[in-house]
TrEMBL record:
<protein>
    <recommendedName>
        <fullName>ATPase domain-containing protein</fullName>
    </recommendedName>
</protein>
<dbReference type="InterPro" id="IPR011579">
    <property type="entry name" value="ATPase_dom"/>
</dbReference>
<feature type="domain" description="ATPase">
    <location>
        <begin position="16"/>
        <end position="221"/>
    </location>
</feature>
<dbReference type="InterPro" id="IPR027417">
    <property type="entry name" value="P-loop_NTPase"/>
</dbReference>
<dbReference type="Pfam" id="PF01637">
    <property type="entry name" value="ATPase_2"/>
</dbReference>
Length: 496
């Protein structure tokens, strides 16, 4: 549940407590370690490693892959960094193969005093592994034959192409099988961590302002570094996304091009999913994608999920059937709905300053924030569970019932539920508004009907409790007092 970002001047890491402890334990271990760090682009992987290195005494070799670089360019950069790390910046002859390059690295390692620990950091390894480069073959050879027997070495590989790292390093079926000693997945900022990050930069926004930004930026550290002191949430959004020099206008294409060799099919898939705000079933999605062979589409969906763009859900009670997908990345969803339709105007002549201020007053934006708030709640399950006092062993999920066509039965959807080990199911209703939410007679009737449909269709015998998750709490009414067991507010989501 922890996240961090380096503040360039103070070198202070915000959050990432658990990840820092893992790195320290591995650094202090008495054996060689092979660590795989992964997470979506812009999440702060390199910041974490470089700042951890600054906190310990070690020899440090750091090489970063070159996006779309040739084998020669990758090896040239490797040789350059070899000179920087071990030979006081001296020029090192670039090798033609990774076998020879790692031979040079091993020779340099052997010249380091035996009491000095060594961190080898291969950043953006997927970019280094160009087609037919045999990088993985060389890595297998040198790890298994040399580096694993040198207790000083801590090898850290890192990549934004999460699916590549998982498939080729963590789940490697060849010479690197089971060689990774620890994995670290970096996740986006929580609301709590965003607030701390802003305070560290002397930016003070209230919870609702941060929420309005979060539904656009998500928890991506780099995006929050663009926020300017003294601007409201909507002023920031206008500047970042709707002025022709805004840093997030073309970020969507950059993201996909950096992660996938052929980004078009992945963009097509995320477009289809984004057009179904409450999710789309896997079978329907495969049919709509019109890509040859369902297996290839499923693999792309796994890759999109591993890189943090989408999430797959199986509704409560469906076991392994009924899987559906939602877009999880806030920025991608915002781009497709709000930025892209204005892209031609933005790139040609730009939009008038304050464009977003007028858009944010439209009912469509209010509806958008309401939907996005549900997604944010899913990412803050820990905070919700803690506020409700629910056992960590509770099953967490969603639920929906769609009756067959022509059926007289009513459908229902549960935003979030906790199936608890104490014989209770807590059903959560999520509502986002600018004021305390009032449950009137009509809304109360709908809530009670939802509980009735849920009990009937799931055939549960458990006690049902209804909890409300709202931005500013509930306005007391006779209905809220009668049917609501607990309530969570936006403030609760900002807890650690």
């Amino acid at each position: 549940m922890t996240t961090c970002l380096l503040e360039n001047r103070s070198k202070k890491i915000i959050g990432r407590i658990r990840e820092q402890k893992i790195l320290k334990d591995l650094f202090d271990s008495k054996k060689a370690e092979f660590i795989a760090v992964y997470g979506r682009r812009r999440i702060g992987k390199t910041y974490l490693i470089k700042n951890f290195v600054d906190s310990v005494s070690t020899e440090f070799f750091h090489v970063t892959g070159i996006q779309k670089g040739t084998l020669g360019e990758q090896l040239g950069e490797f040789a350059k960094q070899l000179g920087v790390a071990f030979y006081k910046g001296a020029s090192i002859t670039s090798r033609r193969t990774w076998i020879k390059a790692f031979e040079d690295l091993t020779r340099a390692i052997n010249e380091i005093p035996k009491d000095r620990k060594i961190i080898l950091f291969f950043d953006e390894l997927p970019w280094m592994a160009t087609p037919r480069s045999k990088l993985l073959t060389a890595l297998e050879l040198y790890w298994n034959r040399y580096w694993v027997f040198d207790d000083r070495i801590k090898l850290i590989i890192c990549g934004s192409a999460t699916s590549w790292v998982i498939e080729n390093i963590i789940n490697n079926k060849g010479g690197l099988h089971n060689r990774v000693t620890r994995t670290i997945q970096l996740k986006p900022f929580t609301l709590y961590e965003v607030e701390n990050f802003l305070k560290e930069h002397h930016i003070h926004l209230d919870h609702r302002q941060i929420l309005d930004l979060y539904v656009v930026l998500g928890g991506v550290p780099l995006y929050w570094s663009f926020i300017q002191k003294g601007q409201s949430a909507h002023q920031c959004i206008d500047e970042l996304c709707f002025q022709n020099d805004g840093p997030l206008i073309k970020e969507f294409d950059r993201l996909f091009q950096s992660l996938f060799n052929d980004p078009a099919p992945y963009i097509d898939l995320i477009r289809i999913i984004a057009s179904h705000r409450y999710g789309i079933g896997q079978a329907e999605l495969i049919a709509k994608s019109k890509f040859p062979g369902g297996g290839g589409t499923v693999r792309r969906l796994h890759q999109l999920e591993e890189t943090g763009f989408i999430t797959s859900l199986i509704p409560y009670g469906h076991k392994d059937k009924g899987i559906y997908y939602l877009v999880e990345d806030e920025y991608s969803l915002f781009y497709l709905y709000w930025i892209e339709p204005n892209l031609k105007t933005l790139t040609k002549k730009g939009l008038a300053e304050g464009f977003w201020l007028s858009q944010s007053k439209q009912p469509s934006w209010k509806s958008w924030v309401g939907y996005a708030f549900e997604s944010i709640c899913y990412k803050h399950i820990h905070q919700i569970r803690k506020a409700l006092g629910i056992d960590p062993g509770a099953f967490i999920g969603t639920w929906r019932y769609v009756p067959r066509a022509q059926s007289a039965q009513e459908g229902a959807q549960v935003d979030l539920l906790f199936d608890r080990p104490d014989g209770v199911i807590t059903i959560c209703e999520i509502k986002c508004c600018d004021h305390p939410f009032a449950i009137d007679k009509s809304y109360a009737k709908n809530l009670l009907k939802k509980l009735e449909v849920f009990r009937k269709q799931t055939r549960t015998k458990k006690q049902l409790f209804l909890s409300m998750i709202t931005t500013f709490g509930l306005k007391p009414t006779m209905y809220s007092e009668e049917i609501v067991t607990n309530q969570i507010t936006l403030k609760d989501l900002f807890s650690s």
